[in-house]
Amino acid sequence: MILAAGKGTRVRPLTYDLPKPMIPILGKPVMEYLVEHLVRYGVQDIMVNVSYLHEKIEQYFGDGQRLGAHIGYSFEGYVDDAGEVNPHPVGSAGGMRKIQDFGGFFDETTLVICGDALIDLDIRSALFEHKRKGALVSVITKEVPLEQVSSYGIVVTDDDGRVRSFQEKPTQEQALSRLASTGIYIMEPEVLDLIPSDTFFDIGSDLFPLIVEKGLPFYAQKRHFNWIDIGNVKDFLTVQLDILSGRVAQMYVPGVEVAERVWAGLNTRIDWDNIEIQGPVFFGSGCHVEAGAKIIGPAWIGHGSHICKNTVVERSVLFEYTRIAEGSRVQDAVVYGDYTVSHSGDIRHISEFKDNLWNDARDRRLKPRVNTD
Predict the structure, then answer these.
(1) Chain segment 329-358, per-residue pLDDT in tens
(2) What is the rounded CA–CA span in Å between residue 106 and residue 187?
């Protein structure tokens, strides 16, 4: 089960027109990495609950055949009297109950994963521990530094790993544990009986406290694995730049390495002799980089982008078809459509800039169109 129905409000503006599981990491949706990982462990039957911009997930993944999986979807929402599709999520646990009420999908031990993180969890080992302890539910946790506990849901256990309570983003002084919930759960079918039908019900805030209250066998597994949570735009920028810098295991930059730590896609138009590049830098297919430009990595330049002359792009991610205007400087930022987001999370619309810093590279005009309304 992949949970993919949320709006991803903390990752705006990327999620203004993208569902969170479709946010690209190295040009590929984060959810695709998850599906590939599941298939590697023999998990092929995958249900996905969808709601906000559901069609973008469904159209991209289809029935899952090209990835070696069987993917089904459960839409949460309705069509109103005007014929508009309205997303209406029913909660992570409520979404599972909706699927169960419809067709009884959850008839075996089920792995539940949030659709917005990169993982390399040893699923086989996690399932073995779940079965060995006779758990009804297991939550996969990862120990985080004390200074980071306020960013996570913290799981409190006894010496045997049995879950006793949860703390939602506690302060360092309040934290009773350093075990962060990774949003990965293993559940037995009987858990579904605890979830009410036709009711908003969340796994973390509703289902888990109920299981603890009833004293059912509920265990936390502390595991050492790569877990990269795309919680906000700052996380997204950090992850992209870390991967380009080679700091994330088993994640490789696409394209051809045309120079040391410089990669390029197909059919680029780059004045290599008259630009300055400090890798790692990736140029997507169809990129145009003019003379006098300076690219300081780590940097990701999305396909179809146009870097005009005498421009500086430093430690940034430009989404596809971004044109950076002549003489401009983009530093420690994500540029996405009409928005730029700084590394500190400051979101600014293009209308806030006096100068024409960037625009759509598909527009034949080098400057943004002026709204005369």
Answers:
(1) 888 888 888 788 887 777 877 777 766 687
(2) 9
Picking from 244, 319, 312, 320, the residue whose alpha carbon sits closest to that of residue 282 is 244
Six-digit token string for 333? 């930022």
Amino acid at 121: L
Describe the chain by its helix, strand, coil percentages, rounded to 5. 25, 30, 45
| 146 residue type, one letter | L
Amino acid at 86: N
Cα angle: 272, vertex 274, 279; to 5 degrees? 55
Select from 267, 264, 339 the least CA-distant residue to 299: 264
Residue 291 and residue 272 in contact, taking contact as beta carbons nearer than 8 Å: no
Model confidence at 142: pLDDT above 50: yes
Band of residue 366 on the pLDDT scale cut at 50, 70, 90: low
Question: What does the alpha-carbon distance between residue 278 and residue 314 come to, in Å, rounded to a whole number?
Answer: 9
**Range 5-15 average pLDDT:** 76
User: Residues near 310 by Cβ (< 8 Å), separated by ≥ 6?
Assistant: 292, 293, 326, 327
Sequence-distant (≥ 6) Cβ neighbours of residue 251 within 8 angstroms: 25, 26, 118, 243
One-character DSSP codes across 236-273: HHHHHHHHHTT-STT----SEEEETTEEE-SS-EE-GG
Q: 373: buried, middle or exposed (CB in 10 Å: 19+, 13-18, 0-12)? A: exposed
pTM of this prediction?
Answer: 0.84
Tokens of 104: 């009884």
Q: What pLDDT, in 10s, does the model give residues 234-278?
A: 777 777 777 777 777 667 777 888 888 888 889 999 888 898 998
My answer on whether omega of the bond before 298 falls inside 30° of 0, hence cis, is: yes
Cβ contacts of 361 within 8 Å, gap of 6 or more: 288, 304, 305, 306, 321, 322, 323
Q: 253: which 2 tokens?
A: 């930059």
